[in-house]
Every structure is written in structure tokens, then in C-alpha cells.
Design a protein that fits this description.
Layout lengths: L1 E5 L6 H10 L3 E5 L2 H4 L4 E4 L5 H10 L2 H10 L4 E4 L1 H4 L2 E4 L5 E2 L4 E7 L3 E2 L2 E2 L4 E6 L1 E2 L14 E6 L1 E4 L6 E7 L2 E9 L2 E4 L7 H17 L1
Parallel strand pairs: 1-2, 1-3, 3-4, 4-16, 5-7
Antiparallel strand pairs: 5-6, 7-13, 8-9, 10-12, 11-14, 14-15, 15-16
């Protein structure tokens, strides 16, 4: 299976690439649309600030390419900031329009919940609680925790698009979302041990079954 990792200058490409290779994938890291067209699925990574990433996608016209891919029902997985870019809007730094594949807005953790202060960023291992199982996620796994590193999270989302979440001081943090051929993972599956590998593997099997 050939996976196209979208290189727009703001992703932790090496770790994602190595994780996919360990699962038997041929991985192509590129911004070339013609090369991306030859792949079975697309992966949008991301590290950094939402406005900068959105600007880079616009400058490279990869935002248009992603809309085209979504309209063609090509499998797409966004990870961390890559997932956040799939939403309608972000309040990070300044209000910025996202790709709009998912309803909702990306907002910063306030640092206070019910009068109790908590750490921002949300960093470390958290239990992933599954609410709705897509077709590609049909089995259980013994591991329950995945690794998060983020200060912003998706709010006002469609509950029907929520696959799994983490409870962070009473805040329901979307961990996995899906809408048609598009999936997002807020955590880093490539850094999340047994469960992270399992989730990547199951998503790939879902791609293969398409």
C-alpha cells in the first residue's frame, strides 16, 4: 500500500514515515500533486501554529488539492495539527478559516475548569474512550492510552463525527473524528505505543478495504 504524506513544511514527517514503514507501507513524502495522485491514501501531519499551517497550505495550493481529494472520497488522515486543520475555524493567534471537513472550532484550553487550575498544554498519556466505531475500527485492544501534546482542541463538534475522546479535567477532548473518507487523530499514534500502532494499522486496513 502506498501512502502519501503531505509535505507542506510543518510536519513531524520522519516519525510518521517510519511508523507507516514499520506497518509495511510504501511511503512518499511530497507536495507534488501528481505524485500524491498515485497513492492509495493521504496523511496530513502538522506541528506548529494553525494560521501558519493554513497559510502554507494556501501558498502551495495543497488546500485545493485536499478539497479535491475529499470530493473524490480518497482516504485522508490528519494527525495533531493536521487534524485541527480539518475543522471549520481556529481561534489560535487570530481567527483563521480551516478546511471545513468537520464542523467545529479549534480553541485553546483555558487552564481552569470548575475553579480548578490544570496544566496547558495537555501533554502526556490519556485514556482514549471510544463512543462510535467506524467500519475500520471493529476490534478491541488491551492498551487504553495514547500520547497527546497540544494546547488547542476541537469544540462544538458534531457528536455523530466523534469516534473517541479523552477526559482532561472534565473536558471532553476529541481524540478521533471521522466523516466519510476523512479521519482525524488529535494524539500522535506514531508515539502512542501499542494502541497507537493498532489504530494506524486498523485505519490502513480500512483504506485497503475501500
Amino acid at each position: 500500500m502506498k501512502i502519501g504524506v503531505i509535505d507542506y513544511g510543518m510536519g513531524n514527517l520522519f516519525s510518521v514515515e517510519q511508523a507507516l514503514k514499520r506497518l509495511g507501507c510504501e511511503v512518499i513524502v511530497t507536495a507534488d500533486e501528481k505524485v500524491l495522485d498515485t497513492t492509495d491514501a493521504l496523511l496530513l501531519p502538522g506541528v506548529g501554529a494553525f494560521p501558519d499551517a493554513r497559510k502554507r497550505l494556501a501558498e502551495t495550493k495543497l488546500d485545493q488539492y485536499l478539497h479535491k481529494a475529499q470530493s473524490e472520497n480518497r482516504p485522508l488522515l490528519g494527525i495533531c495539527l493536521g487534524m485541527q486543520l480539518l475543522f471549520e475555524q481556529s481561534d489560535e493567534v487570530t481567527s483563521t478559516e480551516g478546511l471545513g471537513f468537520f464542523k467545529g472550532c479549534i480553541k485553546r484550553f483555558s487552564g481552569i475548569q470548575d475553579g480548578q487550575a490544570y496544566r496547558v498544554p495537555h501533554m502526556g498519556w490519556n485514556e482514549l474512550i471510544v463512543t462510535n466505531r467506524p467500519a475500520w475500527l471493529n476490534n478491541e485492544v488491551s492498551a487504553k492510552h495514547v500520547y497527546f501534546v497540544h494546547s488547542f482542541y476541537a469544540t462544538d463538534i458534531e457528536e455523530s463525527e466523534l469516534v473517541a475522546y479523552a477526559d482532561y479535567y472534565g473536558i471532553k477532548v476529541p481524540g478521533i473524528v471521522t466523516n466519510g473518507s476523512v479521519t482525524g487523530m488529535q494524539f500522535h499514534p506514531e508515539k502512542s505505543g501499542e494502541l497507537g500502532v493498532y489504530l494506524l494499522e486498523q485505519w490502513l486496513k480500512g483504506v485497503k478495504a475501500c
